[in-house]
Amino acid sequence: MSLKSSLRAVAPASPFNPAHLAPDNARDPHHAVFGQTSSPTLDSLPTVDIRLDQAAQTLWTFMRPGGRPSFSPPLLRDLHTVQQNIHHLAQQTDGVLPFRHIVVGSRVPGIFNLGGDLSLFAEKIMQGDRDGLRRYAYHCVDVVFANADGYGHCLTTVALVQGDALGGGFEAALSCDVIIAEKHAKFGLPEILFNLFPGMGAYTLLSRRLNPRMAEKIILSGQTYTATELHEMGIVDAVAETGEGESAVCEHLARIDRRYNAHDAIQRIKRLVNPISHQELRDITDIWVEAALKLTEADLRKMMRLVNAQNRRIGAPRPESVAS
What we know:
The protein has helices spanning 3-10, 73-92, 118-127, 130-148, 168-174, 202-209, 212-221, 227-233, 245-258, 260-273, 278-292, 297-314, and strands at residues 48-53, 58-63, 101-106, 111-113, 156-161, 164-166, 178-182, 186-188, 224-226, 238-240. By secondary structure, it is of the alpha/beta class. The strands form two sheets. The protein has a six-stranded mixed β-sheet with strand order 1-2-3-5-7-10, with helices on both faces. A four-stranded mixed β-sheet has the order 4-6-8-9. The model is unreliable at 6-39 (pLDDT under 50).
C-alpha cells in the first residue's frame, strides 16, 4: 500500500484551515483549488512531491514552490498538510508508521530554499499588520518544530541540500536531525543585512548544534558558508559530490538501520537532554515580529533589493519597490 493510500485509509481531513494563508491566485492559477473550503489532500499538493520507499522505510518529500523558491503561504500550507497527515496516521496506528526516516529536499535546481517570503514580510510591515506577520511566522515554526521533534515519534529527519539554503531555508535544514549537502551548496542567514534576525529557529537550532556564542556569531555575521565549511564546523553531517546527494542519503540511512536500536535510543536521549520547545520557538517569533515592525523604509529597501536578486536568479518579474 502506498503512503497516500495508507493516509487516506486512516487519516481524517486535515484540520488546517487554508483560508488565512490564501495563495495569490493571480500569480499561480494552480493554487486556485485551495481557495475552496475543503482541505487539500496529498494527491493535490502543487508545491510538494512525496514518495515512500517502503524497502528503506523512508518518506521522501521535495519542495517545488511556484515562483520564488521561498516559504510562500502555499508551500507552508502543503508542508503542514503532509505533516498533519503523518500525525493522524500515527494516531490511528498507535505510532506504527510505514517509515522511520523523513527526507526533506527540493526540486528547484540549485536551490534548497531561499527562506521567508520577503515580499509578504514587506507588505505586512508596511501595513503594520502584526497579527498577519505573527500568523505567518507561527506557521513557519510549526513546520520547523515537527522536524526537530521527530513528529513526536523519534522519526529521523534528514535535510538533503542540493542547492542554496538561505535564511529560513537554512533554518529548515537545521531543524532536521541530519544534514547532507552537495558540495556546491551554500548556506547563510542574510537577515542582518536588512537589520533583522532569523526568527524561525536559527538561534535555538544552532545553539544545540554548536553553542550560543557561535550561534550568535553566525547570525550576526550575515556570512555565506560552503557545505564543506559547515561540515568542518559540525553543522553539516556529510558532504556529497554534485548530483550524488540522494545516494549519500540512502547510504547514510542504511548505516543507521544497521544499528537502528542504538540510533533510536540516542535520538530519544538527545531529545530528552536537549529538548526543543514549541513554545520557545513561538516566543522567539514574537520577538521577531516586534523587531520586524520596527524596520525603517531604508531597511525595507534593502530587503526588497534581496527579493530582486532572488527574482533575477529564477527570471521572475521584479516586484514593486518600497516607496521612499
